[in-house]
Amino acid sequence: MFTLIKREIEDNIAYFAAAALFSTALVIAVTSLAYNAEELSEVALSLSIPIIVLAILGFSAMGASQMYTDKTRKISALLSTLRVTRAQILAARIVTGILTILILLVPLAVTAAVLLRLFPPPYPIYPHFVSEIFTAVFLTGFACYCLGLQLGWNSNKVIRVLGSIGSTAVIVPLIVIKGFGACTVIIMLLLIVASLTRTWQKFTSTPL
Amino acid sequence: MSDTIIKIQNLAKYFDGRCVLDGINLNIPQGCIYGLLGRNGAGKTTIIRILLGLDSPTRGRTSLLGADSAKLSARTHGRIGYVAEAHNLIQNYKVSRLVKLCKDLSLKWNDDFFGRLIEAFRLPMQRRVKQLSIGMRAQLNLSLAMAIDPELLILDDPTLGLDTVARRQFLELAVDLLQKDGRTILFCSHILSDVERIADRIGILAAGKLIVDCPLEELKKRVKKLRLIFPEHAPANLHMTEIVNQQLQGRELTITVANWNQQKQAFIETFKPESCTEIPMSLEDMFIECTRLKSTPITNT
After folding, report:
1. How does B237-247 read in b/e, with b if 16+ C-beta sit within 10 Å?
2. pLDDT of res. B25
């Protein structure tokens, strides 16, 4: 399993690098904004939507490219003749997706927690504010990644492109309207379960 | 020699309503080198893909090393070496990286033997797979499949793209290493001289059915090509079953008969031919004659 995860990381190193760079840029931006508190809300609000769109597209693209590359380069056709099962190949792929999301989110969550201690907001916030936001954002990222996995295994190019755009068009307004509350978490969990089940079923039953 | 390594029961496969395999039954015992032959599109690759769980059957069951093909565990996969017809290697990897990946994902890895193969085939480890010639890719695929010390080696046209020297090298290595330890090989090839050299049992697929399944020697005994010369005109019809092919030319009648036996010999003698000569047949001749034969299976367990 470790070998499979290592292979996925090496093959998708660009996504890991992009997540790390994006995370670093966001950490720097958030930290510098924290020292100019009066501008914080305005800038944060104007940047939040492009950042969400970028992250959603990025995670979808990663999932889709992993599956599409596998299909076109017949990677699983080779791997599944070695000491590996298809379920393990997909599991390793999902682990790398989760790792990429964590690379982007963990530094941001840590930074947010530290900054909230250093610069307590004027209004009181509940104790699990950061962890709840982190969970909701993580689930959103993972749901986008899972949708990407499902779309990437589809051989129809139109469905792949329209699917990515369509999922972005649904998820972004959902977050803008509902925020990262319990409702979003439930919807994302349902989305994850549905798309992972479908991907799993298709990936393990399609001729390689 | 008694354990069944490959078992196929009533296997059928349809592609878009077209029947490719129609009720195939086959048992391959341990230690057997089985040559599976058939024309293009006969279903050889489909059988192999179903056996390995890469494709699903429409009907029937297959098992490898005692495990159902549809549910092969990682460990069972690790005991099987496979060379695909199209050499499914990850094209953008360097050879060294692909070797390392296969090594890390193998149950066993014979470094010495792999080194010998790489040296014999002169494979460049630092080149990318896509930069290799088809022949080199075939050699690399063979080396990877054999280095894992497989209990069962499945070769789907493994010598495709290899030059004569490399082909001979491969066949010698395969026989030496694998047959010595009682390993089993399922071997598909269009180069029938290769199959004739190494196989001890032959299966021939035609029209979706396994029309031949018997030891090579048995096949040679069962399929006979005879030249009969009659005192006057040769009879236009011998009224005998299982005549695969016949050519009539004046007094001379050349026939190919399947399932040759004493009764058939005695029956032919009732026509009182002046002479009856057996024409020697290679496996290639037999294959061509057998693929004409669609309704008379030649099987022997």
Report:
1. ebeeebbbebe
2. 92
